[in-house]
Amino acid sequence: MALSNLIFSIGLYNTFLIFLTLIIVYTCRFYYKYFTRENPLPGPLPLPFVGNIIDRGFDEFAEYTERMQKKYGDIFEIYFGSQKFIMLSKYEYIQNMFDYSLNSKYMRRIPYFLGLDELDVAGKGIALNHNVNVWKFNRHFISRALLTPSFSKYSVIWTQNLVEEMMDYWKDGEDDDGNFITNIVEWSHRFTTDSITHFTTGMRVHAIEAHYNELLLSRNKKPRKSINDLKDATKFFKSIKTLVIGIYFFIIVPPFIRKYFPFLSNEIKKHLQNRDWLFSKIDELIKSRRREIEYTPLNQPLRFDMLTSMLTAYTDRDICEVKYYDEVYTIRPLTDEEVRGNLWETFVAGIDTTANLFTFVVYFLDKYPNVLRKLRDELDLFFKKLGDLRLDLDCLSQLVYTEAIIKEIFRIYTPAPYTARNSTA
User: Fold this and answer.
1) What parts of the sequence cross the membrane (predicted)?
2) How far apart are CA 396 and CA 280, in angstroms?
3) For residue 125, how many other CB atoms are within 10 A of its CB?
4) Which pTM does this prediction carry?
């Protein structure tokens, strides 16, 4: 309202002239700083406000950086908005960046972004944390949970249960020839959503159940549960994916454009509302688990998952078998906000990477039938020996060829093709 009153008072034409003058001044200042920058590196010429976003086009980030590497070499610079990023594509260049000593000047993963603060994800968790002390603090609690043997044992058991349930859905939806056609990308992301959320919270989202019920309905088959009962499952699944897009949006789109370009207001509102909904659901999980822990008698064991581990850490109900005190500031329980930051980041980091790796494995097995045949031979022999026994960690260590395939595909087409470091020197 104030802006419209100002435009009305000075006139539309004068407003246009003022706005045009500001753009010209900003553009001149931008290019003056660009051409007089210290230690210039090769790279595409950035545009004011947007940097090299337009130059990227519709390429995935990995494809874009590979194209830039071929054009400018193993070290080049690109801009997201007014923020400069130096891209390194050679082992010798990045070796020093992975020095984990306390004196390293590359401890921070990313710099501070105002956009991440607006989205309320800056300084939370690990990956998006620019505060080294808070990063160490959060990593300590996540490591305690993941390094505990019970976590690995539990994950194997739960994965088997989920696979068996999924196979029942395949039987329910198979056609007259006994086949069940499904979208492998959609399926893998739903599957890992259920897996990761259950590993971390001990509670199911039912994303895969909602997915298959929708497929069964589309094929005129009876679903196992009313779709209305699973609306939150689909919404939770989509909310995590929207949060990832929102993080990229608030990093790449400069604050000036977010603030003064009205056509982006709906997009910003969508991401903020999605964040509020997702965070409220995670807060409900945390409060529910705190009550469960509080009312569980001391002589009864608590369920084991990452959420319970973080809520009970350094309390009388601590469930972690791995107990160590490496820093003075870690000897205190986590707050609900800190737990929430670690949880949503675990969802985001674990779901997409695991699902994408699985789809890469399927792709390469289809591309190399000889490898697929050898893999089947190993699995057939393994399950024949296993009989009616359940899988455990010791059994998995016998799948040597299977493990080799996964590691080789991970090397060729890693789900996380780039990693960031921010110099504090």
Assistant:
1) 6-28, 240-257, 343-365
2) 38
3) 22
4) 0.82
